[in-house]
Amino acid sequence: MPTEPLEHLDVLIIGAGLSGIGAGCHLMADSPGKSFAILEARASSGGTWDLFQYPGIRSDSDMFTLGYNFKPWTEAKAIADGPSILRYIRETAREHGVEERIRYEHRVVRAEWSSHEARWTVTAERADTGETVRLTCDFLFGCTGYYRYDEGYTPSFPGAERFAGEIVHPQHWPEGFDYGGKRVVVIGSGATAVTLVPSMADRAEHVTMLQRSPSYVMTLPARDPIADLLRRLLPAKTAYPIVRWKNVALSSLVFQVSRRAPRLMKRLIRKQVQRQLPEGYDVDTHFKPTYDPWDQRLCLVPNGDLFRAIRGGGASVVTDRIETFTERGLKLASGRELEADVIVTATGLNLLVVGGMEIAIDGREIDLSETVGYKGMMFSGVPNLAITLGYTNASWTLKGDLVAEYVCRLINHMDAHGFRVATPLAPAPGARTEPFIDLQSGYVLRSIEQLPKQGPHAPWRLHQNYARDVVMMRRGPLEDEGIAFSAAVAPAPPPRPEPLAVA
C-alpha cells in the first residue's frame, strides 16, 4: 500500500523565539514565494522572553540593537523589561504574517539529509497529541538559541536536601512565588544574579548575592538620551539606524579597549563601581574579578540599580565558597553562616546546539563537535543547514538579522543559478582550529567539547565584529573557498541484495 507523501516546505525554521520570528520576517520580505513553517517545541512564542519569569527579567543590552533592524524599538526604555520585549516579538510576528506559520508543541528530534533527494526529512514530536510528525524541506534553519530550555544548570550542593526553606532556579521560577518579607540568598554573580538582587530587594527582608568570585559590573542608563533626542527630531525609521550604529560603535569600542588595553578598562570599571558604593566599601573583594574584561560577558545594570540596593541596605554581597547547605541556610568555607528562607540558584545555563536534535547525512550520524563552523552559521560537511548564534560581545539580534539576510541571499542565489545543494567545506587538513565560542564563562567551558570548532581565518573564523560581518554577510560573495554548490542530485544508492535463503 503506497505511503502518503510527506508535507514538503522550501524552508523549515526551528524555534519561534527572537531569532525564529526574525528569520520568518526576513524570508517573507527577501525570499517571497518560499513556503516555510516554524516548529516551536513550547506552547507559546517568544523563546527566552516567554520562558523566564523571574523578578526583574530584562535585556542585558540596549533594545536599539536587540530589536530587529526592520522594526524600530519605540518604547522609552533602552534597557527593557521582559514583558515589553515579549510584546515586541509577538507584535512583529503578527504584523509580518509570521504568527500563522508557527506550529506549536512540535519538538524537533531528528533531521536526516538525503543526497539523492537533496532534502531534509525532519522528525518532530507533538506534545499536545503525542504523535510523531515528519516533514521534508530543502533548507533547514535552526533558531533554537544555545541553551536547554527544559533544564538550567545547578551544581551539586552538599546538604541541599537538608535546607528547610525553598530552593528556586531562575529558569523555573514558580508562578506567583511570594518572597515578600523573607531572607533571600541569590547564588551567582552573572547577569541573572545582578538582575534578581535589586528587583527582589524592594519586597524581601534582605537579599544577599553570594558569589564564589566577582564579575565585571557596569552601569548603563535605562534610557538613551541621544536616542530620545533623535526620536524627537527625526522620523522613527530615520533615527533608529543612527542610534543602532551609535550603540554598535560604543559597544565595539568597549570590547576593543577591553581586549587591547585590559588594565585601562579595569581601572575605568573600578572607578565607576567605587563611585556608586558607600565610602570604604571593599570593592576589591566583591567587584574585582581575577580575569580580564570580556573574557566573560560584562554585566550591565540599568541606572546602577544593584549599587543603589546595596547603598540602601536592602542588598549585600558576600564573596565566599559554600561548604554545605544547612537546615537554616548556608555554611561558608570561611565558617560564616548565612541564614535564608529562600535560596535562588542563579548558577547558569546548560548549552545545547540546535536544540539537541540528532543530525544524519545519508544514514551517517553527524557529531557537530567534529565540524568546523562556516561564517559562524553553517557547518563543514552539513548541506543546506544554518543556525543563528548571536554575538557574545554585542546584542544577539545584530547577528540574527545578518544570518537571516544571508540565508535569504543564499537561497535566492541557489535558485538563480540552478543549485540545489550548498555544502560548507572544512579548512585544509592540518589547519589550526579553536573553540567556536571564545569566552571563559562557566557555561561555555562546561560544554566546550560539544561545540563545533572554528578555523584560523575567514570564512571559518567566527568574528565578534558587527561591522566586519555586515561587509561579509550582507555584501560579500556567496561563492568562496569555504563552500561548494551542486546542481545535480546524487544518484540513488544501489538496492541492497536480497538475503540468501538459509536451507
UniProtKB/TrEMBL annotation:
Keyword field: FAD, Flavoprotein, Monooxygenase, NADP, Oxidoreductase
Coiled-coil spans in chain: none
Cofactor(s) of this protein: FAD
Gene Ontology terms, MF aspect: flavin adenine dinucleotide binding; N,N-dimethylaniline monooxygenase activity; NADP binding
Entries under Gene3D superfamilies matching the protein: FAD/NAD(P)-binding domain
PANTHER family reported in the protein's UniProt record: MONOOXYGENASE, PUTATIVE (AFU_ORTHOLOGUE AFUA_8G02570)-RELATED
Name the UniProt record assigns to this protein: Cation diffusion facilitator CzcD-associated flavoprotein CzcO
Organism: Conexibacter arvalis
